[in-house]
Amino acid sequence: MSDKKVISVNDRIPSLKEQRKQRANRRLLLFLGVFFILLVLMIYFQSPLSQVKAIEVNGNVVADQDEIIEASGLSSGDSIWNLHKTESVERIEDLKEVATAELSRKLPNTVEITITEYPRVGYVKQEDGYRPMLESGSLLNALPEQEIPSDAPVIVSEDGNVKLEKLAEELGKTSDQIKERISEILFVPTEDDPLALRLYMNDGLTVQTSVNNFSEWMSPYPSVAKEVDRSKHGILHMKMSPYFEDLNYEEEEVEE
């Protein structure tokens, strides 16, 4: 005869009822929890808590904060969950100083705009003063009279139709080490090269090159400049094959 204990159905009924009661309680708590969350969300979306109260701008140095906010199309009172981010970013990036823009939410009710500006690659000398030129080729308003350009070369061009965008692009690809050695850039067009440039360097050398391939041709300048005899007066031609043109030697030949 088996020693197993036999449990009757009547004995199991209280246990089954308790399990059903626990499951029902859990379902009720789950339902109440979901209802409470939905109620809170509904109150939140209907209250000022979900409206934009502050707009923060980060990363701007040249670009005006008010212009950035105006371009974004955002304003206090807008729903923080209905920002039209793509359209706002596109409008901000239309500003000539702005390279990239990013828009994000900082809960509960702040919008953050983070931008990256085009770097200054030069200063174009014009009648109204020195106008900063950005890597995009755009020109900003002239510097105040008392401010002298020091962080990028001065660019001189009498031809108002010269395409500065190409030069700006090339300067953007040029290392800071080389740009810091350039004091002044002059456009000196010739029949062979309408985009010819003459550079006056901070180390005293005069360089002849071109807008075309500027960043590539100027890259070996530091090593080439070391080989130049500073006692000679001439021009260092920085092109595919750099060479030094001794002007004193040519003058002596003419005299002879």
UniProtKB/TrEMBL annotation:
Domain of life: Bacteria
Major subcellular site: membrane
Topological type in the membrane: Single-pass type II membrane protein
Keyword line: Cell cycle, Cell division, Cell membrane, Membrane, Transmembrane, Transmembrane helix
PROSITE patterns recorded: POTRA
Subcellular location: Cell membrane; Membrane
TM region(s), chain numbering: 28-45
Residues covered by the POTRA domain: 50-118
Disulfide bond among keywords: no
HAMAP family linked to this entry: DivIB
Biological function: Cell division protein that may be involved in stabilizing or promoting the assembly of the division complex.
Family: Belongs to the FtsQ/DivIB family. DivIB subfamily.
PANTHER family: CELL DIVISION PROTEIN DIVIB (PTHR37820), CELL DIVISION PROTEIN FTSQ (PTHR37820:SF1)
The protein's name in its UniProt record: Cell division protein DivIB
Taxonomic lineage: Bacteria, Bacillati, Bacillota, Bacilli, Bacillales
